[in-house]
Amino acid sequence: MELFAEQALLPDGWRRNVRITVSSDGRFDAIVPDSDMPAGAERKAIVVPSQLSLHSHAFQRGMAGLAESRQNPADTFWTWRRLMYQLAHRISPAQMQDIASYLYMEMLTAGYTQVAEFHYLHHASGGVAYGQVAEMSLRVGEAAHAVGIGLTLLPTLYERGGFDGRPLQEAQERFATTPELIGRIVSETRSAWAGRPLLSVGLGLHSLRAVDLEAASDLLVAQTGPVHIHVAEQQKEVEECVASVGARPVEYLLSHADVDERWCLVHATHLSSSEVAGMARSGAVAGLCPITEANLGDGLFPLESYVNDGGRFGIGSDSNVLVSPWEELRTLEYGQRLFTQTRCAALPAETLGSTGGWLYRQALDGGRRACGLEAWGLVAGARADLCVLDEDLLPLPYLQDDAVLDAAIFGSRQPPVKNVLCGGQWRVRDGRHLNHDSVTAAFRRTVRTLLDL
Ligand SMILES: [Zn+2]
């Protein structure tokens, strides 16, 4: 396949008249700027690398918008979590697959072509293992395969109900795993997906309250690929951690695990200045989920000091209450502007230039690392993933270079995405996924049954 982009965002910046050749194995063969248009090539106006959602809980898409009314005078994150547990309690493997397929189709349509699925819903109701222990993981893989999105599955260890080692509550039984069991799920999924280049496997540790780091140390050594952990999302979690181990969560994690570039610290909302510096120094990626963090009232990540310390970050759609990389980046920047009473707040001090351009590139780099991918973007050898933007959905015509990304993030009424290529195949054309109707019908049926509507 051959494409010709009038302007395209390459690793060294925006270039004109770019010839893009895709090989039959779904990778970019050549990316050549300042070219003539080859005969038979598809001409596109604006081409950018697609984004990566580095943190998702697919099943939570089944409750989007249902937790927005106050149920008691002290409604908090923890009341939201009760509703989420009720959904997790009911969902079957087939329903999981239908919801994940719909969600991943939405992701592709919005401009994501890779998702890291932080997956802890492993067992049947009552905590009974399925005949094939990786059943739920394999269903997530089927969903990604069917709609054609890249997946980094993170089978997630969830051992206990709190820092003090208390057992899991009944509502958490479906999550119960040991390091040995997670090792089995990892190897079962890896062997099942051997011939599927879009699907890969890393490792998740649910949180410091749910995992004993010492017990997980052999698992961390044995497994390759990225390691993700929820950390310091809520103030209450920080207080419990200090009370039980005498250290703040990120402080504890940095001193009790070999946190390096392989790690993604999801949320890390509540940090002291020494934790900010330590996390930036470690090379780990901060997995920021601005829409969900705003929705749940988590707090604001200290982005200004973190980027000034050289920290890396990417974005995740997390609860999937709304799926759009453009809106994630907008929410991230606006939270910082409101907090600091400045503009262009995400840019490091002394850095001049486009906020949107900088945010977009940072999210690409952080997302690539967190998903465990070697290469990403419009570069020869990388998987052939890209977005063709829809000029009609940008707020102004004739935009060029980073002004395109500023306009797309801050001024678009909806994701300004027209066509999406993943693994060398078109998955979205004219803003619509190729399997839109069948995937939507299955999702509607499942939601109706699951929510008893
Ligand atoms: Zn999460």
From TrEMBL:
InterPro entries given in the database record: Amidohydro-rel (IPR006680), HutF (IPR010252), HutF-like_N (IPR055156), Metal-dep_hydrolase_composite (IPR011059), Metal_Hydrolase (IPR032466), Metallo-dep_hydrolases (IPR051607)
Stretches assigned to the Amidohydrolase-related domain: 46-426
Keyword Metal-binding: yes
Molecular function via GO: deaminase activity; metal ion binding
Cofactor: Zn(2+)
Keyword Zinc in annotation: yes
Name of this chain's protein: N-formimino-L-glutamate deiminase
Species: Gluconobacter morbifer G707
